[in-house]
Design brief:
Order of helices and strands: HHEE
Structural class: alpha+beta
Shape: elongated
Number of strands: 2
Radius of gyration: 22 Å
Largest sheet: 2 strands, antiparallel
CATH architecture of the largest domain: Irregular
Strand order of the largest sheet: 1-2
CATH class of the largest domain: Few Secondary Structures
CATH superfamily of the largest domain: High potential iron-sulphur protein
Strand content: 5-15%
Number of domains: 2
CATH topology of the largest domain: High-Potential Iron-Sulfur Protein, Chain A
Distance between the termini: 71 Å
Number of helices: 2
């Protein structure tokens, strides 16, 4: 094997390993920066366990007695979306967006 072949192979391996690490990182940051995260599905097991609904008015009041119609995700301390956005990130559902008008049983009002 020639010395030149070894160098090319090493460069290829370095490039392949570097790409495998960097590309997913950049892709994830682009998705987060552009607000293109997937939305929470109401049938997701975690969403179901927390009683999450995209529309707070659709919450079953008999199952969640502590729910009030005025409680919406955008008014929750765990909601990380910008004011005025229809969807935004929530620390309860990492990597996913919730509806600003939604609700789940983990609701914690934002401090006044």
């Amino acid at each position: 094997m020639k010395q030149e072949d070894k160098l090319q192979r090493r460069e290829f391996v370095k490039l392949a390993v570097g790409s495998a690490v960097v590309v997913p990182f950049l892709t994830t940051n682009q998705a987060l920066a552009g607000g293109h995260m997937p939305r929470v599905d109401e049938s997701d097991p975690q969403a179901t366990a927390l009683g999450y609904k995209h529309d707070s008015t659709a919450v079953d009041g008999s199952a969640y007695a502590n729910h009030e119609a005025s409680q919406i995700c955008s008014g929750c301390n765990l909601y990380q979306g910008k004011e005025g956005d229809e969807w935004g990130p929530c620390s309860i559902f990492p990597g996913k967006e919730v509806a600003a008008a939604g609700w789940c049983s983990a609701f914690v009002p934002k401090p006044s």
